[in-house]
Amino acid sequence: MFGRVNQYFGAVETNSRGALHLHGLLWLHGNTELDQVLVDANKPDAAAYREAIETYVDSVFKEVGVALIHL
Question: How high is the mean pLDDT of the chain?
Answer without folding.
Answer: 83
